[in-house]
Amino acid sequence: MEQKTILLDCDKQQLKDYLTTKYDVKPFVANQVFDWLYKGADFEDMSNISKPLRTLLAQDNVAKSASIIKTLTSDIDGTQKMLYRLHDGNVIEGVLMKYKYGNTLCVSTQVGCRMGCKFCASTLDGLVRNLSAGEIMGQVVAVNVLGQGKRYVDNIVLMGSGEPLDNYDNVVKFLKMVSSDQTLNISQRNISLSTCGLVPQMLQLAEEGLSVNLTISLHNARQQGREEIMPIAKKYSVSEVMSAARNYFQKTGRRVIIEYTLIDGNNDSYSDALALANAVRNMSVHINLIRLNPVKERKLRATSDTNANKFLAYLHKLNVSATLRRQMGVDIDGACGQLRRNYLEQG
To answer: What one-character DSSP code corresponds to residue 42?
Structure first.
């Protein structure tokens, strides 16, 4: 397949330079194309652009970098899972969660994932490829269009398929673009980035001058127990990850969130809660406890609701800020750890 240019990879000035140089268009025409891109338009929809230019642009470029091909809606809580087709035929998933304070979109940053976490569906096929900044943006644009001219996506979480910091350059470019007042102007304080703990990239992110919320997928504060479910722990220890998290708070002033999936027999005892409390001591941190969501290919079991509430009580007794997250989208495989690459490729 001939490589095409994804126009959403460009900021406004880059797009203007590209179109005026390659296609000899006027700057105001480039601005019109830019506006259409953020309305989720394909080339044939750009009604104030001449037909010959639209035809020419379509030969070499991609306007809609992620197109929604199916939406599944939870009968339980109204959570929606979007299946996006990319220009090369790959399929990725995202989830829209509706809260009283606004709509939160979970986006993917890679096709597949190579981190190998034992509780996650995204990593079953390994890493296929990184998404470009424009392909991450395309997911937000496609859903934002549902607002019919009004902002529909209020918050973004980079918690879909893939490890965001394993696609560092594209993710940082996306963060800067999506928060620009020339695009969707979503406050960085309304954006959360989740990582399994790539320490060098965590340290680098703290120096970017961003104010996004950093979320650490910790899931076990004991070194050996974490290695059993997260291979990355063999490269970066729990203490190294937590040190990098402290550094992020010191550099940005943004409180760190710890994601902790409760797995029966692995990380749900009182001693596990004590290890977690010790790991976050003297940190500005909040713990999100998550009941393990089912993945048919995985053998791990969720802790019981009784044990989940006991674990939460342990943390509160240890003076740790923590909540037990409400499960959303489980019936459509749209919950934490359930997103994957090829959900619809056979259908």
So the answer is: -
